[in-house]
Amino acid sequence: MDSIEPFKHPDGSWPVLESRGRNLLDDPDVQGFVVNSREITELREHEQELKRQNDQLEVIRSVVSHDLKNPLNVAKTTRDLAAEDFEDPDRREDVPEHLDRLGRALDRMDAIISDMLTMAQQGQRVAETEPVDLESTARAAWEMAGGDDATLDIADAPTIRADESRLQQLLENLFHNSTQHTESGVTVTVGTTAVVDTDDDTSVVGLYVEDDGPGIPEDEREKVFESGYSTAEEGSGFGLAIVEQIAKAHGWEVEITDPGGARENGDAPDTGIRVLLSGVQVA
């Protein structure tokens, strides 16, 4: 009889034990069952990390073979057309248009490669956190990823414990996602839910980023965290996958819900989404 089960240690941790039992009822010296156990917590963690790395390699393979290949083909074709038109005086005026298209293809490849590198880094577990001013980090992220026609609203922003750089990366991806899928005029709100005290004497909140854009159908909300999933023509499909990886690296849970609050007439908002990060520790 073999089993692998976690058990609760008196110190509150949950180590994993591998146990093997033997029936020795027929042994006159024992006349009972013998169970040998060993702790394999570290081994299981290594196995999970190896699986995560293998999953990331599969994502990268998929992107290189498909998503990256598409703009590469566009770049090659456009380069050939530009070269042909340059040789023909009657068509030389079309060269700038080809070069613009070539530039867009190169920018697209650069964005995809950057996102892949970010995913490889952000999957790593956050070893240490520090007190982070949520409002200043959100404004720094907005400066990098906010749209020209969009508005940032800070509803409630306490000091939280996080890796500041990776938190900013998470917010940048959420802001970019909100502005990318809206033509203009979107309002993006950053806030937190009510403070909850936990059993280990810490206080946690839910950190949310919501917008009043077109929203996401409920039957697609689980898919948006899959690597490569995007409804935007120029999206890499890695934005929310990166958000989920950074959240999990902090030990947070992430989900998509309807926006909170209500309109002045009491009706719930009929557009937009809220990305909610649960389990964020207050500093």
How is this structure best summarized?
With 283 residues, the protein is α+β, with helices and mostly antiparallel strands.
Molecular structure report:
The protein folds into three domains: 2-39; 44-122; 130-281, Histidine kinase-like ATPase, C-terminal domain (Heat Shock Protein 90), CATH 3.30.565. It has helices at residues 41-67, 69-87, 95-122, 134-145, 164-180, 239-250; strands at 2-6, 16-24, 32-39, 130-133, 151-154, 159-162, 187-192, 196-197, 203-211, 253-257, 273-281. The strands form three sheets. Strands 5, 7, 8, 9, 10 and 11 form a six-stranded mixed beta sheet that branches. A hairpin with a 5-residue loop joins strand 8 (196-197) and strand 9. With 283 residues, the chain is an alpha+beta fold. Helix 2 (69-87) packs antiparallel against helix 3 (95-122) and helix 5 runs antiparallel to helix 6. The protein is built from six helices and eleven strands.
Secondary structure elements and pairings:
Blueprint: E1 2-6, E2 16-24, E3 32-39, H1 41-67, H2 69-87, H3 95-122, E4 130-133, H4 134-145, E5 151-154, E6 159-162, H5 164-180, E7 187-192, E8 196-197, E9 203-211, H6 239-250, E10 253-257, E11 273-281
Parallel strand pairs: 5-7
Antiparallel strand pairs: 1-2, 2-3, 4-6, 7-9, 8-9, 9-11, 10-11
Helix pairs in contact: 1-3, 2-3, 3-6, 4-5, 5-6
